[in-house]
Amino acid sequence: MNQPIRRLSTLVAVMFVLLLGASTWIQVLGSQDINDRPGNRRTQLESYARERGQILLGGRAIASSSPTDDDLQWQRTYSDPQLYSHVTGWNSFTYGPGGGVEFAADGLLSGRDDRLFYDRLTSTIAGRTPKGASLELTIDPRVQRAADEALGDQRGAVVALDPRTGEILAMVSHPNFDPTPLVSHNTSTEKKAWEELNSDSSRPLVNRAISGNLYPPGSVFKIVTAAAAIEDGQWDENSSIPGPAVLDLPQTEVGLPNSHAGACGPNDLVTLAVAMQDSCNTAFGWLGMELGGDAVRDQAAKFGFGDDLEIPMNVTPSTVPDELSPPQEAQVGIGQYDVRVTPLQVAMVSAAVANDGVVMTPHLVQSVLGQDLSKISETKPEQLSKAMEPETADQLTDMMKLVVEQGTGTQAAVPGVSVAGKTGTAEHATDAPPHAWFTGFAPADNPKVAVAVVVEDGGREGNEAYGGSVAGPISSAVMKAALQ
């Protein structure tokens, strides 16, 4: 055999080996990845051949499957579809699972997850048709409904947590949507709903509580700045710090003013506690520069900023910018410049103060149930981080109680209950109304719920909005529901 023929034979042999290897990879090693792709119609058809697991609240299904007479043997239905739209998401044959738990826990709900192997095996042995696992969620229906009704027709989000466990008691994002048309089994109906939802400028498919274009926190971030100051050891709640009418900023002729006219205290001085109570911008701007950007950023990280969280949905990390100039440090100290947060992260900050400085990992799934509703697994409370010493948390609690008792947050009060909180009015665009914030926890002496509320563009009050007047009453309604 001459040399050219040998070379050609070698090339053909190599190509044959590569082809054999690629087909082996696709059929064996890569098969699971292919099966798990949302657009794989064979996998979708297979999943519709068995009953999808339920999504449960207190044993009541908010998402379930019913048998049908069409080729897709099971029809997904949602009770209170708009109330829980961002919690459940949807499971569309045309577009696959999306949003919420339907997407994040699709493997469990569809029955494909490896954790269900023994459940599938026992079902087969018992002669039962295997079906997906059901998920019991941590959402409290009363708290969810209270948050939804209090937020009303305003754009924004509400999150409520149990600070002791990290359980998510409510997660509301407005505008919401009805997932029912997306699961209709009618291609044209699903397509029309999909196109309308995605072309809506109000972005109803975005869960504002955990994702989307994150918000500047404004003055609710002063909790983080105050925590950094007390943890630093140079200051406590009784420390006297500068609080002039306008804070001179180095490297610029533009000063940082208070949101109200005048200084925050006599002789341009104010205690840290009163600065929190009255939300004094100049005092916290001064602290931001004294602490420096690295210290504030490090403190924020202890609260969970920058962490990649799954609840099981992915949570967009909240951020504090790097490499700050002194004027930018002052702005960061009051939650402006490029600080960006999710409402969930803000609720975690309050929850950490409520829980003696410990941040618990937030979660939405309480337990995974087999097809006979026996418990397969349960989410145990887990510490995410330690944000501060208990003594620091105690001082912050005292300061945040002043906010609600006689400061900017009086409209967040709950009759007969001691509430700790912080207001925020966050500027975010030129000539646009500010976002209105409130975050806090109750009861202050034995916390059971931590809340964060954001109302976009001042809600109904527009340019006249303040965090206390717009977001405070919403928080109050949510806390009342949680504590009843």
In words, what does this structure look like?
- This protein is an alpha+beta fold.
- The protein has 18 helices and 21 strands.
- The strands form 7 sheets. It has a 6-stranded mixed beta sheet, with no helix packed on it. Strands 8-7-21-20-19 form a 5-stranded antiparallel beta sheet, with helices on both faces.
- A hairpin with a 3-residue loop joins strand 4 and strand 5 (96-98).
- The relative contact order is 0.12.
- The mean pLDDT is 92.
Biggest pleated-sheet summary: 6 strands, mixed
Distance between the termini: 91 Å
SSE class: alpha+beta
Shape: globular
> Mean pLDDT score, rounded?
92
What proportion of the residues is helical, as a percent range? 25-40%
Report the uncertain regions: none
Please give a handful of descriptors for the protein shown.
484 residues, alpha+beta, six-stranded mixed sheet, five-stranded antiparallel sheet, 18 helices, 19% strand
Secondary structure topology:
Blueprint: H1 3-29, H2 31-36, H3 41-48, E1 55-57, E2 60-67, E3 74-78, H4 85-88, E4 90-92, E5 96-98, H5 100-104, H6 106-110, H7 117-125, E6 134-137, H8 141-151, E7 156-161, E8 168-174, H9 187-199, H10 222-232, E9 240-242, E10 246-247, E11 256-257, E12 269-271, H11 272-277, H12 281-291, H13 293-303, E13 309-310, E14 314-315, H14 326-333, H15 343-354, E15 358-360, E16 365-369, E17 375-378, E18 383-386, H16 390-406, E19 420-426, E20 435-442, E21 449-455, H17 467-470, H18 472-483
Parallel strand pairs: 1-6
Antiparallel strand pairs: 1-2, 2-3, 4-5, 6-16, 7-8, 7-21, 9-12, 10-11, 13-14, 15-18, 16-17, 19-20, 20-21
